[in-house]
Amino acid sequence: MEFLTDDAFMVLANPGVASTQLLSPHNSNSRRVTLTRVVVQPGHEQPRHSHPESEQIWIAVSGAGTLLLGDDKTLEFEAGQVVRFEDGDIHGFLNANDDPFIYISVTSPPIDFNYAYTTKNER
């Protein structure tokens, strides 16, 4: 068993986006999953990207915004909804609303997300 508290959570950030690594290769022996809490501030986005060898599930906790998908497609996404991206699916998120958008992301197999963020804060 592993029991983690907030002092074990690394926070990765880009302007307007903070990703708290709740369960990651940096604080866990899990070889099956990465779990993150992501906050996208109003007027900010996560650009379209993909994970060639991992699937990802997003659970919308609060707020609303727009999923940015492949072929320039979009889909509205709001609290209470869940979306799953298969390996290689293009995805991103735009928060054009007035409130922060918060979601939980489950990624399997695990990914070290340091490559995708410009700053990190190890607690």
Automatic annotation (TrEMBL):
Keyword Metal-binding on entry: yes
Q: Name one GO molecular function term.
A: metal ion binding
**InterPro entries noted in UniProt:** Cupin_2 (IPR013096), GPI/OXD (IPR051610), RmlC-like_jellyroll (IPR014710), RmlC_Cupin_sf (IPR011051)
Q: Which UniProt keywords apply?
A: Metal-binding
Q: Which residues form a coiled coil?
A: none
Whether Plastid counts among this entry's keywords is no
Q: Where is the Cupin type-2 domain?
A: 37-106
Show the Pfam families listed in the entry: Cupin_2
Name it.
Answer: Cupin domain protein
Q: Which organism is it from?
A: Marinobacterium stanieri
